[in-house]
Records
---
Amino acid sequence: MTLLGRSIPAPGVSAAPSATGRTKDLLAVSDLSGSQLFRLFRIARELKATPRPGPASQWLSGLTLGLLFEKPSTRTRVSFEAGMHQLGGQALFLPSDTIQLSRGESLADTALVLSRYLDGLVVRTFEQATLEEWARHATVPVINGLTDLCHPCQILADLFTIMEGKESFTEDAFQGFKLAYVGDGNNVANSLIEAGAKTGMHVAIACPPQYQPDPGIVERSREEAGRTGATIEIVHDPAAAAENADALYTDVWTSMGQEHEQAERLKAMVPYQLNEHLLRRAKPSAIVLHCLPAHRGEEITAAVLDGPQSVVLQQAENRLHVQKAILTEWLGRPWP
Ligand code: CP
Ligand code: NVA
């Protein structure tokens, strides 16, 4: 296929590994091997400990990252923008309704033109297929800043947060670790399942039967779990999932783009609230995770979200450190 006089790689070609072994794009946790994932965590830990200004301050000097967002964002946008700035590069926020895309310019033309200006593009959109289209047409790396299907950058920061608590950065850090996710089987749940399978974790997901995680992701992750020693459990009883867990995780019951389903979702999800009662099922040392934004009194009580076991602010901060690691890898100047 040709566009604007140049040939476009066929679907999937853009995902070819680079010289460093990483895929061209980061569209899902499944784009990473286990060792690449732990390499990102090691870099994130080093960058987190590196003083500012310091040796990393010019690491991405002269490079520009675009952030093409079709949905609102606080953490993802600001942590990528601040991360680029802290590494000496620049970020451009491109809400989709402010560029010619909103007046009918094609995604392909936009991706090709932006690739002439930018060194990488973070895309937040609805369908995973749309993200894949960006990746196919852009000649620069495309990073998933959240789709309806998955939220890989979030989950990498979440696993990094768990590792920090364990103070063990070895590849067996998650063996025997039980993470229970309760609520909607959404993008966050899907990426948790993928990451859990890759790292040998025990992931227990409790959700209503009509709001289950993506069956394709569950199936592929269970195959991977067979190789890594992970367990992927999908149940409907939140108490069973939370039993003896090392971490409890929840997310909103109505994700961006599902607002019209809110009343129905609320009704189905009430038994899945992360509250003090559920927390007592987990280990006394269990941590509480939430990707934020949170709705206190819906998917989580204020007492749990703001309580002593909650690590949500550390988790939000770690978006910055892990994404800085991602940027050094994907923008072509790998941290040693
Ligand atoms: N957790 C997360 O992705 O937050 P934002 O929607 O604010 O980016
Ligand atoms: N599941 C949520 C995550 C927000 C960070 C959503 O997609 O809206």
Note: Residues 111 and 138 are 5 Å apart (CA to CA).
---
Amino acid sequence: MTRAVLTLNAGSSSLKVALFPAAGDAPLATGIADRIGPEGVLKLVDTAGAPIAAAGDLSGHEGAMAAVIAAFRARWPGLDLLAIGHRVVHGGPDRQVPVTVDAGVLADLEGLSPFAPLHQPHNLAGIRAAMAAFPGVPQVACFDTAFHRGHPFVHDTFALPRALYDEGVRRYGFHGLSYQFIAGELAMRAPALAAGRVVVAHLGNGASMCAISAGRSVASTMGFSALDGLPMGTRTGQVDPGVLLYLMDQKGMTAAQISDLLYRRSGFLGLSGLSNDMRTLEAAGTPAAEEAIGYFIARCQREVAALAADMGGIDALVFCGGIGENSRRIRAGVAGGLAWMGLGLDPDRNAANARCISPDDAKVPVLVIPTNEELVIARAARVAVGLG
Ligand code: ADP
């Protein structure tokens, strides 16, 4: 019998999965059901990266989930699923830790959908589908906001009338599962740095930074939504709200059109007119692609400095996410431009994608730590069933 926990990350048209054993950090299998709908594709691989045969009805999330489970059961007959952990974007103002989901919790989380309309409903649909498919198996919700919920008021609020803060219009911050993982890794690998003031740059398709002081998040570049802060693949990052008023008043754009603009047509894609993908931009070399890269680096530098100011200084910078873990150019641009703050950069270490990319004597070390949100979810699922 194979005792395991499953992690699910349900998006609008994708379902990312990982199957973890009852103990240990390496997953038994990982995969994604992508482009869920008429052209759905399902890819599962085992620990060694070898494909796991999988097929099924991928026209919806429930079919995709059934196909994943059927493939895992064929591979591990007697699979005993102990718990299922879910990535949920929004836990609201009060949730600081994962929660085992029942009908009441589900209703509570549904009430937060207006705060994250593009993500929360899909996350919850994933939980509902898993509850239906596995009645009796604990479903554990892990929130991207939870790690940030201890922010001081000044980093939790906008200067809006107080009533809006009270009804939940706050700077929540996201990517919390990633930051939790990095904080934990840092505590193991470099406890002295982890006890200090660290800026973590999670740079992927979505991108944000977090100021972590003595292991606790104190500020984040993302705010009420996952739009604020850094520019991203297709999202604007910080934008003057006056622009939105202009688009509504002068161009007659609707909320749906503005949402589409801010979430899907801006960022690297909007600036470059070419792609949302950093690799493509780096290879393109067109003036617009170079400007998009330049804008990203400039905003990253500004946010590192701003978050350092929030902590009264900086003892280390950590890169993670697809861009942070792989793009030598972005790391060199960001860290190199912040040498005045004491950040070090060793070009050879950076070129080698080393874990420490600064010289040994750097005043402020610069590290690269691959993130692992699935493992954070799997650990929470284990804890919920007494295996932690
Ligand atoms: P997500 O936020 O969807 O999880 P990832 O963390 O996988 O995304 O990051 C995707 C981004 O990482 C893309 O912009 C991709 O181009 C970029 N990336 C991945 N590898 C490299 C690389 N070698 N050089 C530059 N960018 C890279």
Note: The chain has two domains: 3-143, 191-368.
